[in-house]
Amino acid sequence: MKVVVTGSRGKVGRAATQALVDAGHDVLGVDLVRPVFDAGVVVPGRYQMADLTDAGSAYAVVAGADAVVHIAAIPQPTGNPPHVVFQTNLMSTFNLIEAAVRFGVKRFVYISSESVVGNFFPERPFLPDYAPVDEQHPVLPQDPYALSKLFGEQLMDAAVRRSDIRAITLRPSNVHNEDNYEENLGKQVRDPANLSGNLWSYIDVYDLADAIVLATESDLPGHEMFYIASPDNAGGHDFAEILHRFYGEQIELRDLDRVDASGISIAKARRLLGFNPTRSWSDYLGTDGRRLTTAE
Length: 296
Hints:
Pfam families: Epimerase. This is Nucleoside-diphosphate-sugar epimerase. InterPro entries: Epimerase_deHydtase, Lipid_A_modif_metabolic_enz, NAD(P)-bd_dom_sf. By secondary structure, the chain is an alpha/beta fold. It has 8 helices and 11 strands. The chain has a single domain, classed as 3-Layer(aba) Sandwich (Rossmann fold), CATH 3.40.50.720. The termini are far apart. The longest helix is centred in the first third of the chain and has 22 residues. Helix 1 packs across helix 6 and helix 3 runs parallel beside helix 4. Helix 5 links the parallel strand 8 and strand 9.
């Protein structure tokens, strides 16, 4: 297929672009980064620089595509004024899905966020109703980033109501690669008392890229949403024990499929997408939270 990948020069975008190219697709990467013209510099797929908050640019990159994978976004509510985060994320999504509907694109894959549940950057304290969190849990975002992602999901709902496009939303957990596992997860691996809003959950960027390929190639009708996380938690701790130790009875514990389970369920993604993550924090870190050396 001819696949447009937005945000193709970011952490997730680079991995997804490479995975789609490896799967045999003709990929056009789109981002705000200037093109590389030097001979010998290898960048997978084709590339076009574009600001997707401009409707004309969105239409230009989507024309002729079979599928759109929309990753580009300001990735958190800090670092930019709230209105900039919200406007950038929402309008780029609106422009792309509008173009996709008008051009008859077959599949739209939207990268949302686990934070739509309300677990990151809340101005008032928030805890999930139960764990592991799944797609049935209420979404209660407070911050402009999570709100922009939730509104993007609603744009997917509207698109499938008014056209034949098929949409899949992926809600990844906190994404890591070989460069930032130690910095981001090291403390949790050493000691689960280092709490996070997502209950020690995470996803490896290359497993997420595999999920994106599965979503792009899927024939699922309508609009489906999936949480994407590793099946284990950061550190491989006994999930039931640490949930009770740090949260008492505040969060209902539901059935676990393994002792070291994640705080996010991927049962639906396994069942409908065939998602089978194979990478773990332990491929990169020791139990002390330090990065493994080549010898290890």
